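Homework help thread (please don't just give me the answer)

Our assignment gives two proteins as sequence + structure token strings and asks us to describe the second one. The first is just a warm-up. Here they are:
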Amino acid sequence: MALKQGLYQKQLQKLSPQQIQLMKMLQLPTIELEKRIKEELEENPALDEGVEQQKDDFEDNAEDQQNDDFDIDISSYISDDETPSYKLRSNNYSNETDEKSIPLSGGSTFRETLKSQIDLRIKDENQLLIANQIIGNLDESGYLRREIFNIVDDLAFSQNIHASEEEVEYILTMIQSLEPSGVGARDLKECLLIQLRKKQTTFTIKTAEVIIEKYFDAFTKKHYKKIIDKLDIQTEDFKEAIDEIIKLNPKPGNSLIDTSKVVQHVIPDFIITDNNGELNLELNSRNEPQLKISNQYVEMLRGYEKSKKTKKDKEAILFVKQKIDAAAWFVDAIKQRRQTLLTTMQAIMNYQENFFISGDETDLKPMILKDIANIIKMDISTISRVANSKHVSTPFGTFLLKYFFSESLTTQSGEEVSTREVKSILQEIINQENKSKPLTDEKLMNMLKDKGYNIARRTIAKYREQLNIPVARLRKQLL
């Protein structure tokens, strides 16, 4: 078949720059929106802070009703033959460009803290390089996951240092003596033993050390009776040893990592208040500046109308026009975002009115994205973007917007209830169980069936995992 070349017409759906900008705006929570506005104010000189002036303020007389600041006609200045139309449109964002974020500085990192300690203990240059190599191989929890012989090879290839495994082991023991206690361990067992051996030796500490060293597997599986029989000790002594073990930190590196992280406070995007049973909704925009088109740029564009047009003037007109258009699009996107957020949240508030009045999780109705989309006549993807990373402040606390969305479950009476209600009841049953004899998933299933919730055992296991509740064997405690 011969190849042919020709012209064809076809219709395509393509998002405009304004639509792309609006979609990105909808996804941003309040704190990120504030950063985005600041970035736009810095990048676009035609965008200014302040209350937008009325149209009449820019009109020279009452007859000139068509002269809008945001849409000044410059077609008479520039011939279509000289300037292609695409140069008159502003598209600040490509499809692959994500929103920029402002970098924030934190404190000393986990590894920097360890290096500052080891620098005071080791003076030999080669030993210090070995120590830094080991510290560099520690994971975020403070564990050394790389084998000693691999570190020896790394030192030979990258640092040209020929060290024996015994020398690396010796440096590792020095790192294990650093703070926080337990850092540099190769597994959980070694981590706990390092911490116990740093404590003052007592009968309880010695018992805890023996439990971890000799009966670690039985301890992790909570086979307490077996350990008590093997050690031939009293139950009270065993409980005291277990209490000491529980106090230990299984991830010592996290204590240093958390101190170097920037604390991100949750700023709610919506605020719901209860005024004697009447719910009031407002958008949290107190830190969001008012935006308008810069008067200086509008007057600048008008000034070119009265002057003679040179080639440089045409370039200046293009620049000013692009900046004004971009500013107008941004202001319009902010307004549309505000309206869409309020409309969506109003629908959610009305749908879950009983919960916002009582604060009882069992009052939550089954609700999916499609339910809200049908109410406000918007696309499901728009509702998803609004619900993404947004928080709402209520009289009963601050919640993620996604918290209010849940699937439905039919009870034995035929009533549809939210899966959150079932999880709440499941959590309550487990909280009240006998900790020495925890309830199995099958027993939990039977108890929920007695309450009218027809639910399978595998579903119980799924909900339990979603609630971060371990299996019955791992919930067992000594009373």
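The one we have to describe:
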Amino acid sequence: MRSMNRSLVMLVVAGGASIASAQTQPIATFSYNNMSGNFSAGLFTAFAAAGGATNTSGSVARNVATTGSAVFLPGFVAAANPANCQFSLSVGNFGLDVNSNPVADGTGSFTLTDFNGDTVTGTVTGIRGASNPQDGWGILGTSFIRFNGQLSNVIFHNNSGDDTFNGDSGSFSMDYFGQHGAFPGTITFLRYAASAASNFFTAPFSGLPTGVNAQVVPTPGALALLGLGGLVAGRRRR
């Protein structure tokens, strides 16, 4: 699971975040490995856990000036602070793809929490269609169930008042995210299953290793403003 997640992380964060190429570059990314994946009564959840196969680690990164990453070490959720990651998606509209493999739609939300109680929240949508046949739930190989979807209304909440998203190590400024509102993006889940086709939400499960990778990509105008804000902040520090 770890090697698969590393490959996805490389795909998500590859490349820079220069303002010149703002229209195609993410302003922020997040990735969590070995979350606890669970399913019951049509609802899939994934959240940070400590110990065993679901000893969750992760990172949340700002990819535009001034760049920074909040890194969460394995088992971070066991510490005496609010840090966590939580995802909740309804699963429905089951069917088959062109290769007769099972597929389904998914919609829901997420909350990422740092060590001081600051959060990143957003909406997740994965609905299959003619223009996006890879969205939603499907199978990958023989041992993974994957989800591809879109993010919307991604908001950085400065709950603690320190304007900083903090991890076990590293941090980044949240100030300009807050100034420029809600952002869109993309998201991918991978859930391990002994046999992906026969374990495609056919029965309740709990505690299965699950990884997530996402990128936040704003509208060009919002990113241009974000970049200008970063330049102003840099001049003030000098």
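TA reply:
I won't write it for you, but here's a hint about the kind of observation we're looking for: The first strand starts at residue 28 and ends at 40.
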